[in-house]
Each structure stands twice: as structure tokens, then as C-alpha cells.
Design goal:
By secondary structure, this protein is an all-alpha fold. It contains 18 helices and two strands. Among the domains are: 118 residues, Helix Hairpins, CATH 1.10.287.70; 83 residues, no CATH class. A two-stranded antiparallel ribbon has the order 1-2.
């Protein structure tokens, strides 16, 4: 009989599994075999930063991946990306299950860990969901690699084109943003095959395995003419994702038309705006020079990065469902409805409270992160003496790290050691989630058997 599931123990398992993976990756990247000949040794902070960025599928880099790391080092980074994207717990649960044998199945603890990572699907057992997750991941990455190989093989030898295709396909599906080109994907900014493939991989990885499984079961049921409907979660994710992508693309195109970043060629502006809207939600690939974007566009990208992808996916951020529930809360209160309503369903109060906690946690993390970066990078230098708009750059960097996006205005390589540590911690907190990280650090909190007397306070 399985022992009862302890939420505190689970949160610590999640947090420390990521910590150990990051430290192991950093040690491997410090090895001489991990870097190219005639390249300066990788410092401990750069190795730690790169490993954390890979495991947390962020993509922020202080050393150029393609010109710094050898094939072995790039392989280490790719392995860390795959582990971070799928989730250490998903892989460990799979191998434990295979080792123990199918007869014993998945224990209660591992079942709960899997549901925390990806959720649960009706009529599908945890073991079947686990196999489906791995199969969907590798088949999607394989298809993406094949499509990218078609284009890369036109400019590179077969072996190099294959590696480039595999690396970028896995990085895109895991929403990591790591690339082997010095300019990310700016060289393919108007290439529909490369841009379309990368965007497709980002979206599929950012939807979440739960949504993909739910949609698949719904399509199968429809094909068999059975009555079946998508869950509220899946409908909310799909609609919110579509709205964010389209709104972001239209707004970016309107604000950047004729700018130094995108120019005024209609097809180029449309494709680059769509790509930026997609990649802003935790992928981090560059098809446009972020440093050339206008202030309003940077602020919009910050909002998209903060929202991020969907629960149970390879993406980070506060998540689409969190944003949708908060919007539904405002709309329901404006309409004087007694419950929070969304897509003709009432959302449980516990879910609404959790959404508000997530938003509050992220806002606090952003405030602390920006404050620390201002201290480590600007120090006591007077505001009117700082070079450029460092506050906006640090806000952008903080949200990018916390949302595990990887976009940057160019300040990442110039960060001090203290600044790199701040960003490393933000990437880690963004990947495991502020609430889960806090739970693991604070420890188990027992419930008190009483409540205090109620008294009103004035608000607003």
C-alpha cells in the first residue's frame, strides 16, 4: 500500500531535482572537452548560467553557444533542454516505471507528480498518458527536424545540417530559444519554411500535453460520431492562445511598420510580427533585433512574456489560464455576477484564489528582480548619468528570465557576476513556479484550527 502523498515533500522533490540537474550540467560545461579549441575557458558563473538557462528552457546566453561550445558541449546543452522541457519528473517516472515493471504500475507519489507536471486526462491512465507524452514529444521534434533539414541542407553539409535541424527543433518545441547561429534566426527572418516550422513547434510545445491529448480524444470521438466535448481547460487554453497570438501580431505590426527593426515591406512585417508574437510567449528565438524595437513594442512583449504559455507545457510565465481566470474575475465582478464565470462555466473559488496568488507571486518576483538588477548593474550612479534606458532593459531582462523566455535587449552578456546570479535565480524560480519554490524553502505549514474575528477595511 502506498504511503500518503505529502505536498511539502513533493515540492521539495521538484525543486531539488532541478537544482541537481543544473549543477550537474554546469560541471559538464566546465570540462575542457565542452568548449571549442582556442576558446577562453568557461567561468563557473557562465557555466552555471548556461546550465540553468538550458534546464529552465529559457535561452538567455552569456556565451554564444555555436562559437563557444564543442559538439559535446552543445550535446550537453541539448540534453539539459530536453530534460527541462519534458520535466525531470516525467523522465524519472517513466524510467522508474519501466524498471519496476508494468505489473506494479505507477505509485501514488509518482502518479501525483505526473499530474502536477502535466495534469490528468479522462479515460486515460497515468501510464498511458506518460507514454503518449514521450511519443508526442519525440515525433513532433522529429517532424520539425525533418522540415528544418530541408532548408539547412541547402547551405550546409548533410551532417552539420542534421545537427542544426535536430538542435533547433528540440529547442523550439521545448520553448528554450537556444540556437547555434550567432544571430539566432535573423538570417531566416523572411524564410516561411524555417519561421513556420519554428512557430509550429513553439505553439505545440506551449499548449501543454493535457490539451493535445484532450483535443486528440475529441477528434477521435467526432470521427466516430460520438458526443464528446473539450474540457473547460482545453477550450480556455486554445482560445486564449489564439487571441494572444493574433492580438500581439497585429499590435506589433501596427507599432513597428516602417521602423528600423522591421522596415515597411508588407510580407516581411507580417511574418516578423507574427513570429515575435509567438516567440515572446516563452520561446526566445530572435528573428528581429530586439534592441531596435520601439518602447511601446518592448512593453507589449513584456506583457506577452509575463503571461507565457499554458500549464503542463514546456513554456513558462504565469500561464494563459491564469490570465484568462483573472480577466474573467474582472468581467464577472463588473457584471455583478455572484461567481466567476468563464465560457459558460463557473470557476471554483479555489482556482480563482490560486490564480490571484500566482499573479501576486510573479509581480513580487518581478519587483525584487528589477530592484536587484538596478543595484548590481547601476549601483549608486545617478539616474541622469546612466547609459540608455537601463530600467526598461532590466525590466525586460527580469520578465524574460522569470517567464523563461530568453529574449534580451542585449544586456545579458554585460551583466556583472552578481547580475548573472540574479538572473539565474529568476530563471529557476520561473521554471518551478514562485509558489512551489516558496513552498520548498519555507517548509510544511500546518493548518490552524481556528479563525480570527472578522473586521472590514476600506479599499480603493
Amino acid at each position: 500500500m502506498s504511503a500518503p502523498v505529502n505536498e511539502f515533500t513533493i515540492s521539495r522533490v521538484v525543486v531539488f531535482s532541478f537544482v541537481l540537474t543544473i549543477l550537474l550540467g554546469a560541471l559538464l560545461l566546465l570540462l575542457p572537452v565542452s568548449r571549442l579549441p582556442n576558446v577562453d575557458p568557461v567561468s563557473w558563473i557562465d557555466a552555471l548560467f548556461t546550465s540553468a538557462s538550458a534546464v529552465c528552457v529559457t535561452g538567455l546566453s552569456v556565451r554564444d553557444t555555436g562559437t563557444t561550445f564543442s559538439a559535446f558541449g552543445q550535446g550537453v546543452i541539448l540534453g539539459l533542454i530536453q530534460i527541462g522541457g519534458l520535466g525531470f519528473l516525467t523522465l524519472s517516472t517513466y524510467f522508474i516505471t519501466r524498471f519496476q515493471g508494468r505489473r506494479r504500475g505507477i505509485s501514488l507519489q509518482h502518479r501525483h507528480l505526473l499530474e502536477i507536471s502535466h495534469g490528468s486526462v479522462k479515460s486515460v491512465s497515468p501510464a498511458q498518458l506518460l507514454q503518449a507524452i514521450l511519443a508526442f514529444t519525440f515525433l513532433t521534434e522529429l517532424l520539425g527536424a525533418y522540415l528544418l533539414f530541408i532548408r539547412f541542407s541547402e547551405s550546409y553539409p548533410t551532417g552539420q545540417a542534421t545537427w542544426l535541424a535536430v538542435f533547433h527543433a528540440i529547442s523550439a518545441f521545448c520553448n528554450a530559444g537556444f540556437g547555434l547561429f550567432a544571430d539566432s534566426l535573423m538570417g531566416y527572418r523572411q524564410d516561411l519554411l524555417v519561421s513556420g516550422t519554428i512557430m509550429g513547434l513553439i505553439i505545440l510545445g506551449g499548449l501543454g500535453f493535457l490539451v493535445v491529448a484532450d483535443v486528440t480524444l475529441w477528434l477521435v470521438a467526432r470521427a466516430r460520431r460520438q458526443r464528446e466535448s473539450l474540457s473547460l481547460h482545453s477550450r480556455l487554453v486554445l482560445q486564449t492562445t489564439l487571441v494572444l497570438i493574433l492580438f500581439g501580431a497585429v499590435a506589433i505590426a501596427a507599432m513597428e511598420w516602417g521602423s528600423a527593426a522591421m522596415g515597411d515591406q508588407p510580407m516581411a512585417v507580417v511574418l516578423e510580427s507574427l513570429f515575435l508574437s509567438v516567440t515572446s510567449r516563452t520561446a526566445g528565438f530572435n528573428a528581429t533585433d530586439t534592441a531596435l524595437l520601439t518602447g511601446p513594442t518592448l512593453f507589449l512583449v513584456i506583457l506577452l512574456m509575463a503571461i507565457g504559455g499554458s500549464p503542463g507545457s514546456t513554456a513558462g510565465g504565469m500561464k494563459t489560464t491564469t490570465a484568462a481566470v483573472c480577466f474573467s474575475l474582472l468581467r464577472s465582478k463588473a457584471r455583478n455576477r455572484p461567481r466567476v464565470e468563464c465560457l459558460e462555466r463557473a470557476v471554483p473559488d479555489e482556482t480563482v484564489n490560486k490564480a490571484m496568488l500566482v499573479v501576486t507571486g510573479y509581480l513580487l518576483a518581478i519587483i525584487i528582480g528589477v530592484l536587484l538588477l538596478q543595484l548590481t548593474e547601476a549601483g549608486q550612479q545617478p539616474f541622469n548619468k546612466t547609459e540608455g534606458n537601463l530600467f526598461l532593459a532590466h525590466l525586460f531582462e527580469t520578465v524574460s528570465a522569470l517567464g523563461t523566455v530568453g529574449l534580451s535587449t542585449g544586456v545579458t552578456p554585460t551583466l556583472t557576476t552578481s547580475g548573472k546570479l540574479v538572473i539565474t535565480i529568476l530563471m529557476f524560480v520561473g521554471r518551478v513556479g514562485p509558489l512551489l519554490a516558496a513552498s520548498a524553502m519555507i517548509g510544511a505549514v500546518s493548518k490552524i484550527p481556528y479563525t480570527f474575528a472578522e473586521e472590514n477595511v476600506n479599499i480603493g
